[in-house]
Amino acid sequence: KIYSSSFPKEFQGCISDFCDPRTLTDCLWEELLKEDLVWGAFGCHPHFARYYSESQERNLLQALRHPKAVAFGEMGLDYSYKCTTPVPEQHKVFERQLQLAVSLKKPLVIHCREADEDLLNIMKKFVPSDYKIHRHCFTGSYPVIEPLLKHFPNMSVGFTAVLTYSSAWEARDALKQIPLERIIVETDAPYFLPRQVPKSLCQYAHPGLALHTVREIARVKDQPLSHTLATLRENTSRLYNL
């Protein structure tokens, strides 16, 4: 309710990402999916992979049976200092989730931080090249994403409001080189408040603010906002089978 005024009339829904299986024992995710314009993705982020267990996997698979569960993830690898899960454990949990996702025919939501080469090698082993994949929250340079785009032609790249930051020149350069038909927009809420949004209006990012990122994509691509928005919606519907 606090943020309702910051949702634009163009808002037509979002996908909420539940990436810590420890939280699936409460009913919050089920209540959220009762909302008409909310769908869900479920997985285990590498930050939480150290806690992965058989019981958590059962809860994860149960959530993925929900009719509004549209993807498996966020999962992946994170070699940054922020991730305390040992690398071997990350690999084990990532590989297990890839196998489960492919068996369930669920699109993938992929997290990667400072682990691009290992991520690609593991995905080549477990994921068909024509699989539907969302490379989540990309902020890097084009040479980093290019090998993934070439090997997985049905991969889409997610951009956040980081694009609106003056420091994000590498991400904007990558955006220029990636076809609009392979781009989707996301928020990574509550992080990455768009540069144009004062904290007096919103302290945290949320899906209603994604239009700011769409405007930046349209500007960088030199495309009309209406065309950009329509294409991004179509991309999202195709990726997530909505």
UniProtKB/TrEMBL annotation:
Residues reported to bind a divalent metal cation 2: 111, 136
Residue spans crossing the bilayer: none
SUPFAM superfamilies: Metallo-dependent hydrolases
Family annotation (PROSITE patterns): TATD_2, TATD_3
CDD domains named among the record's database cross-references: TatD_DNAse
Record: residues binding a divalent metal cation 1: 74, 188
Keywords attached to this entry: Hydrolase, Metal-binding
GO molecular function, one term: metal ion binding
Entries under PANTHER family matching the protein: DEOXYRIBONUCLEASE TATDN2-RELATED
Family statement: Belongs to the metallo-dependent hydrolases superfamily. TatD-type hydrolase family.
Protein name: TatD DNase domain containing 2
Organism: Mustela putorius furo
